[in-house]
Design goal:
By secondary structure, the chain is an alpha/beta fold. Helices cover 35% and strands 22% of the residues.
Length: 605
């Protein structure tokens, strides 16, 4: 939710901190701040509510400097987005500063205790207890390292914490349930919630584990467990290029990410489809899932729609499969056995509800598998196995390329599951495989030929928008509506086409466009549903294979995609919907990359 960045070097680090914060703004952005040393023993803290430019202005006025520092962008969970509640937070003496991501569940108890011992608080945040706990350790004569460990020992919840103490040449940090990575350059070291924070400086990364305590100085780092025993944590290289994480000339990250889907999908499938249509997943050779009786997907938001999409193929091929919203699964878990495979679909690998669901499933004895974009993410490390979707970093809050890559990676995994669980391949295995192999070039055609920009202008100011579909058209309709409401702030709802006449039809008028997704199957029934809304005067925007003559004739607006296997066609149709949302939001002047009230990574339940 929030973003942590920190740097220690030979020279001044304020530029690195501001760059790191700007790169992490997608994690949360209602306020930001930095802390650097002041004098022999103090720290100087600058923090501002609002976007990062407010902090830049404050830095330009006061010109803080230092060769060690911490920074934070906040997405509020405790207390409103004010200057006071922005991080870093400090102790009573102003010598201990802390940035934190996650939630301290026992903060009220700790705050009360600390108050009784004379500590004064200046914010409403749960974070503020941490510097005061460290202060007590230092007052007792402990070293910073020991005072930090003692303080962390008292915390309950999930968190990543970095502290800077006045007079110290090292940063101290830990993680438990929230992400924290170390970036290693020759003469400067970084700590951050996520790799893009420091990607222009270094691609050498250490993924810290839950419970790790790390001390980072200008020349290196030392990782220990909670008892202070040294742990081996070797760096690895990430293959993301800095320019991958930049806008590349596009007005918005979202548009850039929509347009780079052909390359992302090429990476997703590369080396994973054999000539005869069989899949070749290095971690999952044939027989990997022998003994699995049923599959449960758990996911949130867009990833849940990808899971629903994947479920269609499995169910049609005779595999027992269900898709659950992780927020509900975490509250009311569905029974599992040791033969159940629970698949967490999560772009970030850090979504709290999804992590909670897989931890529960794992504890109940199920086998767990993460389908994620982030190597080293908590989901990848918590599950028994991981399949990476290889979409590259996604900065826009609205998920676009990761949905397409999730669906594609899940389709490959689905084929392995069908073969292992039913003993024979999907009926149309070769055709499906060929369609997914062709997907990057089909998608390039959609992007080149799309006429969505004109259409968006005609439909930009209606009362509400409905999205309907059958088969994989249903999850695509749900995803289309989610994207539309998320970035246009207009009312949009997605339904299975058959569901419309059981209630939502009452809302359909000539002022409510209905976007109908046709996946190439179930066409007669889907056309009948479209007739139902046309009879109420609603303009129909249809998305279907270019050869669908009947759909083209019936619809008021037709957005064609190349004719292909229905399971690949849904991905292409969804790209048209991404463009519809993007262009309407752009015409309405919305904050496309950072929609109000939302964050890229939802690390609280
Ligand atoms: C919508 C969106 C969210 C995420 C959801 C799950 O555009 O991005 O709905 O899909 O928060 O996130 P991950 O996939 O990181 O678990």
């Amino acid at each position: 939710m929030c973003g942590i960045t920190a740097c220690v070097a030979e020279g001044d680090v304020v530029d690195e901190l501001l760059t790191g914060l700007a790169n992490l703004e997608y994690r949360g952005y209602d306020s930001s701040g930095i802390a650097v040393p002041r004098g022999e023993a103090d720290v100087s803290v600058l923090k501002r509510s609002g976007e990062i430019d407010a902090l830049r202005e404050a830095v330009a006025e006061t010109v803080p400097a230092g060769s060690i520092g911490i920074g934070h962008t906040r997405w509020s969970t405790h207390g409103p987005p004010t200057d006071e509640n922005a991080h870093p937070h400090t102790d009573c003496t102003g010598t201990v500063s802390v940035v934190h991501n996650g939630i301290i569940e026992n903060h009220e108890t700790l705050r009360e205790e600390l108050r009784q011992r004379g500590h004064e608080f200046t914010s409403d945040t749960d974070t503020e207890v941490i510097p005061h706990l460290i202060e007590e350790g230092l007052d007792d004569g402990r070293s910073t390292d020991e005072a930090f460990r003692r303080a962390v020992d008292r915390l309950e919840g999930s968190f990543a914490v970095v502290t800077l103490c006045g007079g110290e040449g090292s940063l101290y940090a830990t993680r438990r349930g929230s992400p924290l990575v170390l970036g290693l350059d020759d003469d400067r070291q970084f700590l951050a919630s996520d790799v893009p924070s420091f990607l222009e400086y270094t691609d050498r990364v250490v993924h810290l584990e839950d419970g790790d305590v790390v001390e980072v100085g200008p020349a290196g780092y030392r990782v220990t467990d909670t008892d202070g025993d040294r742990l081996p944590r070797e760096p690895t290289s990430v293959d993301w290029q800095p320019e991958d994480a930049e806008r590349d000339g596009y007005e918005h990250y979202m548009l850039k990410e929509i347009n780079e889907q052909p390359q992302a999908l090429d990476r997703t499938v590369r080396g994973r489809i054999e000539d005869d249509g069989g899949v070749s997943l290095s971690s999952f050779p044939p027989g990997s899932f022998d003994g699995v009786s049923d599959v449960q997907f758990v996911a949130c938001g867009t990833s849940y729609h990808a899971a629903l999409y994947a479920r269609e193929h499995l169910v049609e091929s005779g595999v027992r499969a269900h898709a659950f919203r992780a927020g509900e699964y975490a509250t009311t878990p569905t029974p599992v056995t040791e033969d159940t495979l629970v698949v967490a679909v999560t772009q970030s690998g850090e979504t709290a509800d999804t992590l909670q669901s897989i931890r529960h499933a794992r504890d109940e004895g199920a086998r767990t598998l993460a389908v994620t974009n982030v190597v080293g993410s908590t989901a990848a490390r918590t599950c028994d196995d991981a399949l990476f979707i290889r979409a590259g970093p996604e900065i826009g809050v609205a998920a676009t390329k990761t949905f397409s890559s999730q669906v594609t990676a899940l389709s490959l995994l689905g084929e392995r599951l069908v073969e292992d669980l039913t003993g024979s391949p999907s009926e149309d295995r070769a055709e499906r495989a060929a369609a997914f192999r062709r997907l990057p070039s089909d998608l390039t055609r959609v992007l080149e030929d799309s006429t969505v920009a004109d259409l968006a202008d005609r439909y930009r100011d209606r009362d509400a928008y409905f999205f309907i579909g059958r088969g994989v058209g249903h999850p695509v309709a749900l995803e289309g509506a989610l994207k539309f409401k998320e970035i246009t702030y207009e009312h949009a709802e997605g339904f299975g086409s058959a569901e419309l006449k059981h209630g939502p039809l009452a809302l359909v008028t000539e002022e409510t466009p209905v976007v109908a997704v046709f996946d190439g199957r179930h066409e007669e029934k889907a056309l009948a549903n479209v007739e139902e809304v046309r009879a109420r005067g609603a303009p129909v925007i249809a998305i279907a294979g270019e050869g669908s003559r009947k759909v083209r004739e019936l619809a008021d607006e037709f957005l064609p995609v190349p004719d292909t296997h229905p399971d690949a066609l849904g991905v292409l149709a969804n790209v048209q919907l991404q463009l519809v949302s993007y262009h309407v939001a752009d015409l309405l002047g919305r904050s496309i990359d950072k929609p109000r009230n939302l964050a890229k990574s939802v690390t609280v339940e």
